[in-house]
């Protein structure tokens, strides 16, 4: 599934760590992301690499049925993610059960360059963080 990304390469989430020591263990299901920020980073990486199952599995169960796999697959196919910047975070540590992460993610499509700004809410249950929802704004920077 993730053959385009070798474990020694730097992680797409911009952490400066190698993929193997950053988002890969979470995306491959070896262990849960320990914080809301790490879950958010790994979901960005999953978007960048096309790991749709991970995106669905890390969405709160109540919202999973709203996800249209075909639409997500199309978004992944036509979008190139070019950078992630964490702007702010509230709670979301190992001891918390909820957290908020505000970030900007840069992406390109065939005819546009955009910045997605999102304030995302996350919940933790039994040591697993889940994405709940977010306030999303997309602006063109082309
Ligand atoms: Zn990462």
UniProtKB/TrEMBL annotation:
<protein>
    <submittedName>
        <fullName>SEC-C motif-containing protein</fullName>
    </submittedName>
</protein>
<feature type="domain" description="YchJ-like middle NTF2-like">
    <location>
        <begin position="35"/>
        <end position="134"/>
    </location>
</feature>
<dbReference type="InterPro" id="IPR032710">
    <property type="entry name" value="NTF2-like_dom_sf"/>
</dbReference>
<dbReference type="Pfam" id="PF17775">
    <property type="entry name" value="YchJ_M-like"/>
</dbReference>
<dbReference type="InterPro" id="IPR048469">
    <property type="entry name" value="YchJ-like_M"/>
</dbReference>
């Amino acid at each position: 599934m993730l053959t385009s990304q070798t474990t020694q390469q730097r992680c797409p989430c911009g952490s400066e760590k190698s993929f193997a020591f950053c988002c890969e263990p979470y995306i491959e299901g070896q262990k849960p992301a320990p914080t809301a920020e790490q879950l958010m980073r790994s979901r960005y990486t999953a978007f960048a690499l096309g790991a749709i199952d991970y995106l669905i599995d890390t969405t709160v169960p109540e919202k999973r049925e709203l996800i249209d796999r075909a639409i997500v697959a199309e978004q992944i196919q036509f979008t190139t993610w070019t950078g992630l910047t964490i702007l702010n975070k509230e709670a979301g540590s190992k001891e918390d059960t909820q957290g908020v992460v505000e970030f900007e993610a840069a992406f390109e499509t065939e005819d546009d360059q955009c910045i997605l700004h999102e304030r995302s809410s996350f919940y933790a249950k039994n040591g697993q963080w889940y994405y709940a929802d977010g306030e999303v704004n997309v602006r063109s920077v082309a």
